[in-house]
Amino acid sequence: MDRSLSRCPLCESNDAARLFTSREKAGSRDFHRCGVCDLVFVPERFHLDAAGQKARYLTHNNDPEDSAYRDFLSRLLDPLRPHLVFGSEGLDFGAGPGPALAIMMREEGFRVRLYDPFFHPDVTVLEQSYDFVTCTETAEHLDHPMREFETLDRILKPSGWLGVMTGMLESWDDFAGWHYHRDPTHICFYSKRTMEWIAKRFSWDVQFPRPNVALFQKPVFS
Fold first, then answer.
1. Is the dihedral of CA 31, 35, 36, 37 positive or negative?
2. Domain span including residue 61
């Protein structure tokens, strides 16, 4: 395949994703940008294997008792909370080794199950449906984002909410100096335009209540 072309892992366009910035300009990896959904992504040949990914995740600070980390997660929780009914049930998708957000939501009276392919790999939780799903600092790790968003659409109840928190630049012109792509496990990068494409694809409503936060609502009839 021409190194300047790559299949987009989100919209799955075959010929719309082109070399955005090369490893010579942005470290050790190439980055491609899709002309359809605006996703910037790392081609599969640069992905870490499962052992490498897990080792990297274990270096993250996910301590539920860390007040600074709680404040960070509140960027999603605070705008999501008013849309939820006390006692409703949700899933923390990509919970990580320390499911701090789930703990915070349980403290407020919500029921939250966990899923993470490395740390909470019980796939039976993906066979149920939920009033809400949270996806914090996870979307950037997805090697097949379309498949994962299809799963999220399937498990969300009608009128359910999906909260996604991931780094989003205002302009791709700032990509080269952005810290976010330096993490070798970060392989997908979204803009507001990308999130709007996702919303249209699944007939969801979307809003951006805070920087790096997208809230989607599934329609009652879909």
1. positive
2. 5-217
